[in-house]
Design the sequence.
């Protein structure tokens, strides 16, 4: 018969604290940008609308980028979990080989 260890689901339970998406924003002096746009011929309402659009686009772009990113700590933890799982598989293979040749 085959000898196999129980599959452990604990390898993906570890909690890692990362900065929430809402807190990851590009910050810049919006007032200075509005003033600069006004100085270059834009009306105040136009300048404010442009700055508002830039903020929205920046945040949407960052949200898209951050969704696919992991921290170095998360990556290291995942690597350790995978390596531990591979070690378990290797042990199962050794046990299986020994039981076949016994």
Sequence:
């Amino acid at each position: 018969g085959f000898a196999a260890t129980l599959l452990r689901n604990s390898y993906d339970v570890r909690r890692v604290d990362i900065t929430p998406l809402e807190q990851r924003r590009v910050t810049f002096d919006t007032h200075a940008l509005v003033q600069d746009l006004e100085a270059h011929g834009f009306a105040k309402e136009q300048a404010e609308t442009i700055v508002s659009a830039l903020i929205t686009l920046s945040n949407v772009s960052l949200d898209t980028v951050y969704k696919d990113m992991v921290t170095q700590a998360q990556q290291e933890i995942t690597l350790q979990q995978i390596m531990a799982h591979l070690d378990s598989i290797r042990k199962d293979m050794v046990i299986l080989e020994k039981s076949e040749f016994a």
Remarks:
- The chain has one domain: 10-101.
- The radius of gyration is 27 Å.
- The first helix runs from residue 30 to 39.
